[in-house]
Amino acid sequence: MRPRTGTAPAVGALTLRPVDPLTDARLLHGWLTHPKSAFWLMQDAGLVDVERAFMELAADEHQQAHLGLHDGVPAFLVERYDPAHRELVGLYEPEPGDVGMHFLVAPTDRPVHGFTRAVITTVMTDLFADPATRRVVVEPDVANTAVHALNATVGFVPEREIQKPEKKALLSFCTREQFERAVSA
């Protein structure tokens, strides 16, 4: 699969490529165990745990992981999943065209203004580039108010709180039309 590239005028080129579990594990381990990534619930993961998690994800037909590059440098992680088969099974009634998503912007000591919004906009644009995608589903921790606010900027609407095995989550949805309205405003 060839990398997909977009541009965010104020930020630069943002590119997505599939995660290589063995090559990218050390980098992802550093990101996922960083204190700023606490909502990913991998603070105590070892390198082997991260390798194994991404190898399992790569082998699963219902999930994909992509590394996001900013001007060619790794800067974010995106996971796409089928909520009818992963993450949300039994917690809501999936509709045809639903796609689940997680994203993580790499921890940094030098944040770029507007970068995280550019990342989520790029991720959503990529998800909706697939004509089969009708709605994106997310389930962030209810305590992650920063991501709830960010999700709202690209059109997500919270539906309700749900109890997952690992967390209490805010189930939220964004249709193609909601996304287009949000980013054109």
Determine the fraction of residues in helical runs and give it as a percent range.
25-40%
**What's the helix count?**
5
Query: What's the count of strands?
Result: 8
Show unreliable segments.
none
Characterize the overall form.
Answer: globular
Strands of the largest sheet, in order across it?
A: 1-2-3-4-5-6-8-7
Q: What number is the mean pLDDT?
A: 90
Radius of gyration: 16 Å
Beta-strand residue percentage: 25-35%
Sheet with the most strands, sense and barrel status: 8 strands, mixed
Question: What's a concise summary of this model?
Answer:
Helices cover 31% and strands 30% of the residues. It is built from 5 helices and 8 strands, in the order E-E-H-H-E-E-E-H-E-H-E-E-H. It has helices at 21-32, 47-59, 115-128, 145-153, 176-184, and strands at 4-8, 12-18, 63-70, 73-81, 98-105, 135-138, 157-163, 168-175.
List the helices and strands and how they pair.
Layout: E1 4-8, E2 12-18, H1 21-32, H2 47-59, E3 63-70, E4 73-81, E5 98-105, H3 115-128, E6 135-138, H4 145-153, E7 157-163, E8 168-175, H5 176-184
Parallel strand pairs: 5-6
Antiparallel strand pairs: 1-2, 2-3, 3-4, 4-5, 6-8, 7-8
Helix pairs in contact: 1-2
